[in-house]
Write a structure and sequence with these properties.
The protein is mainly alpha-helical. 23% of the residues lie in helices and 0% in strands. It has two helices and no strands. The radius of gyration is 12 Å and the shape is globular. 13% of the residues are buried.
């Protein structure tokens, strides 16, 4: 199953991943989404820019928070 995840996971204030452009709901439900829904998300985030790493406002579900510096 293709995914737009770039392993640069961090959520911005709008709860959108700054690494791939998916919303938190799209990330959480990715495996249960239908093919058409996943294709629509893939098309929408296809050209999502890779942002420079910045501290996330909150960790993604199932991922530990980054260490504080």
């Amino acid at each position: 199953m293709d995914t737009p995840c770039r392993n640069l996971c961090a959520l911005d204030a709008a709860r959108v991943c700054t690494g791939c452009g998916r919303t938190i709901d799209e990330i959480v439900h990715w495996r249960s989404m239908g093919d058409e829904a996943r294709a629509a998300v893939m098309a929408r985030v296809r050209d999502f820019p890779v942002s420079s790493p910045s501290p996330p406002t909150s960790p993604l579900p199932g991922r530990p928070a980054p260490p504080s510096t």
